[in-house]
Amino acid sequence: MRASATPCPVAAVVAASLLGGVGACLADAWAETPERTIGAVQSSAAERAPAPSIQALVVSRDQSLYAGSFGMGVFRSHDRGASWTAANTDLSDPFILCLAAARDGTVYAGTFRAGVFRSRDGGKRWEPMNAGLKRLEIKALLIEGGVIYAGTGDGVYRVAEGDNRWRVVTKGLDETLVHSLVMAPERTLFAGTSGRGVFRYKATASEWTRLTHGLVDHEGLVENFIRVLAVDKDQALYAGTFDGGVFRSGDGGQTWRPISRALPNDSIRGIVTNERGLFVATGRGIFKSLNQGRQWTPLNHGLTELSVQVLIVSDDGSLYAGTSSGVFRSDDAGEHWVGISTGLAEAGVSGTP
User: Fold this and answer.
1) Does residue 27 lie within any of the structural domains?
2) pLDDT of 106 higher than 50
3) What are the backbone angles phi and psi of residue 13, rounded to the nearest 5°?
4) Could you tell me which of 267, 287, 269 has the C-alpha nearest to residue 278?
5) How far apart are CA 14 and CA 20, in angstroms?
6) Residue 112 to residues 27, 55, 162, 265: CA-CA distances in angstroms?
7) What is the mean pLDDT of residues 190-207?
8) CATH code: domain of residue 249
9) The whole model's pTM is what?
10) Are strands 198-202 and 96-101 parallel, antiparallel or unpaired?
11) CA 195 centroid distance within chain
12) Mean pLDDT, rounded, for 299-322
């Protein structure tokens, strides 16, 4: 990689670090940053600011939609994205990597530098809850059975809802960055890691078990960098990798097979499974398969930003996609998308840091 002589903004350096580059400058991402002018009519930052990069999405029990951005904190919408409000009071780190919502309405945010935050009042105020955590970079949050799980730079931690102290989930993932978590039937927890593949933990086990057999991409390379995990109604497990496509396991992770050779992009950012099919978000849009990955159909009509960062499905079946430039929603299983970022940048500019 050739170094640039142009100084990087601080936020760009943080972004490059998060994405795995050392000394990289995301120059294109900052080209549209508003600049002040002297002796001329000035446009406000809100009028000129692009929609933020959305890294996390979650729908709470009261159907409020929360969006976690990279650098502008958390936004909340009570009308499916028609309008947004910044929800950042007492949130000390605006770089949001993951979100989760509990059944009692509590919302949790995992950040890049400051650990986990909790809001009990719909995002109006946040409080840190980091007791017991060794590392404060939180890549994944999962809530199952009244327990919150966090994927960190030092393995997986857990805490009961209402409690305040995290405890490590057994041994075997020390000093390992965990990007994704999913719970399968019989309380089997799977973790996708950076550089070590997929691990499985059962409540009766004394440590994590590594599951990498078959995680080989089309070039014969073992894919150890797992960005996202998902499980379908038939208990099949899916692993989306950083640059090696999607893999499927029908035996609890014991063996894997690649299912994304027909996709135009191998950078997998989100996986959703439901009765309408298997949906995959990539660096070049969203695709659907009805036959376990043998064929893929692009679902990008109306999706004006194809660099998708996160994909979720709500209880009513609506799909939400967070992209490098705002949020999109589909009410027809991805056939058509509508941008729902109007007011998102303005809310961030005027919101409380």
Assistant:
1) no
2) yes
3) -65, -40
4) 287
5) 10
6) 20, 11, 23, 26
7) 93
8) 2.130.10.10
9) 0.85
10) unpaired
11) 18
12) 97
